[in-house]
Give the backbone structure.
Amino acid sequence: MKLLIPLEAASISLVFLALVFIPMEKVFPARQQKIFRTGLRMDFYFFLGQYVLWSAWVLWCMQYVQAFCNTWISDGFQFQVQRLPWLLQAGIVLVFSDMLIYWAHRLQHKVDFLWRFHKVHHSAEELDWLAAHREHPLDSLYTIGLINLPAMILGFPLSSIAAVIAFRGIWAIFIHSNVKINLGPLKWFIGSPELHHWHHDLNRSAGNYANVSPLMDIIFGTYHCPGEYPEAYGIKEDTPDTYLGHMVEPLFKK
């Protein structure tokens, strides 16, 4: 069976995501926003960069991290974990990865070196499903590596948790989308666009650092959900106006 080349895979993903999220954003809009908004072209470049340029490199790095974990973690421990029911395995991975990424994400906003790369993601001044792809590749490696580190420590091959990885990817796109959906009491247990949009507020320390569930934010006092959406998104720093500029600028300390 012929494998899809990256450009073909990117095209299929782009069409699929557009067909899912554009109607959703039009039916349940959080803000009145044009499809062909300001910054759309830049986010499209980031989308292509993630799929065509950087995804294979990130996966290659992840395989080396997994090999390192398999070298240092007891085979017996990993074997016992892998005997658990699949749903329990997935639950363990989600809980521990949420705990880890909460603190890792919080550091991205507190440590200037990490913020230099992470602010690329926050430079978007309008949010929707495509803006979710605005990331520096080193920032993506940091985030994806830590999200999947618990699974690799527990000895799960990346192929066996593909469904969990895919779920997290779709979830990340959903919480960036220009969608307003009332989750009711579930909002205390499941993240939402409203929560994550406040994370993209101009205030660098706005909170809401958790990934899938806001429980870590609630526990550690960084939960912020005033009931409406922010008036403005982005960062208070000057940012490059080209894709190459976004790639290069974080490498050098101002």
